[in-house]
Amino acid sequence: MISVIMSAFNTEKYIGEAIESVLKQTYTNFEFIIIDDASTDNSLAIIRKYAKQDPRIVVIVNEVNLGISK
Q1: Any alpha helices (H) in the chain, and if so which ranges?
Q2: Three-state SS for 14?
Q3: Which residues of 12-26 are buried (b: 16+ CB within 10 A; e: fewer)?
Q4: What is the pTM of this model?
Q5: How confident is the model at residue 67, as a pLDDT?
Q6: CA-to-CA distance for 32 and 14, rounded, in angstroms?
Q7: Is the pLDDT confidence value at 69 over 70?
Q8: How far is CA 56 from CA 10, 32, 61, in A?
């Protein structure tokens, strides 16, 4: 198993397309960790929608914006 990690901050325009791109890969034995970095748009709602549909998705929510390196 591998882990795919994605950070998101106010990405509602593109987050669905990015998530679908990872989920459509031919290799399926992975966990998909998505970290919402305190988005103020609908990014987190979109991420959670996908997480409800696919058990490989793990959602982590930062309460304050920490930036991509944190």
Answers
A1: 15-23, 43-53
A2: coil
A3: beebeeebeebbeee
A4: 0.93
A5: 87
A6: 17
A7: no
A8: 22, 6, 16
